Amino acid sequence: MKVTASVRGFCTCLPKYGVIFLLLAVVVLVFLLHNMAVLEWFEVSGSQLEPTKGDFAPKEILHKVNSTTITPSASTVPDTYHSLWTFQPLSPEDAQEERLLLDSITWPETPVLPTPLSLEKTTDPAHSNFIILPSWRGGGQWHVGDQLEVLINIYDFKGHPKQSGGDFLLAWLTNPTLGAGVVGHVVDHLNGSYSAGFTLLWEGSAQVQVLLVHPGEAVTVLRRLNIEQPDRIYFKSIFHSRSLSETTICNVYLRPTQQPLCNYTDVRTGEPWFCYKPKTLSCDARFLHANGGFQQNLKANEEKLFQRGVNMKVSIQASGPASVTVLAKKEGQPQVQNSSMNSGPSGYYYQGLWRALDGTTVRQFNPAAISQCLKGKAVHMFGDSTMRQWFEYLNAVLPDLKNFNLHGPVGAGPYLACDYARNILVTYRCHGPPIRFRTLSTSELRYIANELDELTGGTNTVVALSIWAHFGTFPMEVYIRRLQSIRRAVVRLLNRAPGTLVIIRTGNPRALDLYIALTNSDWYSIQCDRLLKAMFKGLNVRLVDAWGMTVAYRLPHDIHPQPPIIKNMIDVILSYTCPQKGS
Fold first, then answer.
1. CA 15 to chain centre
2. What's CA 439's distance to the chain center, in Å?
3. What is the pTM of this model?
4. pLDDT digits 0-9 by tens, 27-57
5. CB–CB of 462/452 below 8 Å?
6. In this structure, how many other beta carbons lie within 10 angstroms of the beta carbon of residue 224?
7. d(Cα 154, Cα 122) in Å, to the nearest integer?
8. Which of 72, 268, 285, 431 is the most exposed place for a label (fewest CB within 10 A)?
């Protein structure tokens, strides 16, 4: 009624141009109402609840209430995702760093997929091969400390040489008899050929292993998915008040719909998180977080690019000898020195034990030695389930380390264990969203940066971080900003307590099937690995190169590396914690 009266008055004042102004007024009014609705949509906000009391039993609670699930229908037309999740502007310094980091991990151009898609012209590991290049400098011989070079030639399923690059290859040297292994460095020549370089670190046989993780055509798909479908993994929150429960979809960003949003962006870190608002309950009623599901949006025949045993995680064979014999180091040849922060190997295995190349003497710790090393120390672990493995290892091998039941869900924690006699404290807490753990209280969704700001730190404090596996489906900018937030907190911690030991675990390759390839492929993980190393380079932190330690070991790849690898990782972090005198 008010709108009609306003228009009528406007027309009475200007009878000569009434019709024209009437039309203009209607257009302006519609525009204003539309923008008011958009503003209201973005201004909806909410907060987390306080920690729940007593046992954590979401299933029992939900069985007693009426539950509905809200899944708004949204357009599947690709969005310009930057406008959706870039909620807080970066400082000029952070923005410049982001650009440099993205440039540093730029993947070579990959093939454009034909329509219809056929495997005929895509990479075929069975037709591809590698050849060991002669040792020109060594007179046909190789010595410890030399570089071994391998040429990899890629062919398609019709046996024709490929003319493009972009394939994802891994290469390493191994000697199962000696329990030796070291990762190599692969270079893409952008024409269907690749080079792999290796540092020779032990005497005896060194066998070359080359693995096709993904053909370049599969990388084309993976890259497109992170641009067009970064929300293909989605999450849920359960809202509860008295006898009513509602469930809505949540994510780092949500596609525009008519459904208003609850804004849970962290006040301190600026990390964005949103949920569609329940129909009846308020945003303050949110109390549970859960993994929602996965939407697979492949085009016709694209699933054929992700076949185990055909073109995904398949070995490439040698054309000729696959191994060389390494002689003793020449007199006067310098000792190999590398770091986990650069492209060279951070270490290698010998007799099944990890030997670091950054000058650290990696000691072997039995339970008694671990207890002695950690005596009087607090070890705080934050991150994903690959960090939880470290907590579980210590909790299993130390008989006097008693685990306290904090009533968190299995796998998600939080966990706490103490050895009162030796004054040892070990804790674990998962990182904040996005986190694909099973249902957990929203009060436990805490960002690593905020947790670090709560620590006093000091010479008796060890902080261990691992964050990578839950970011694969998002644009790398999301991961960069999370690392920037954590790095700022690490700097603050080291400034107020310089004696604090900060250890960062990198990501690692894993077994792949179609679902995992589309959500947590090694192609995503290796980019996270490179960003992580670049982000913390130059800081007083220590890295555990889980990527190199997993690739170089003789066991199959696993998201949770098997016990011998974990044991070697623990020996590395304890060697950082309790370095050998004089080293």
1. 66
2. 20
3. 0.84
4. 334 333 333 333 333 333 332 222 322 222 3
5. no
6. 17
7. 10
8. 268
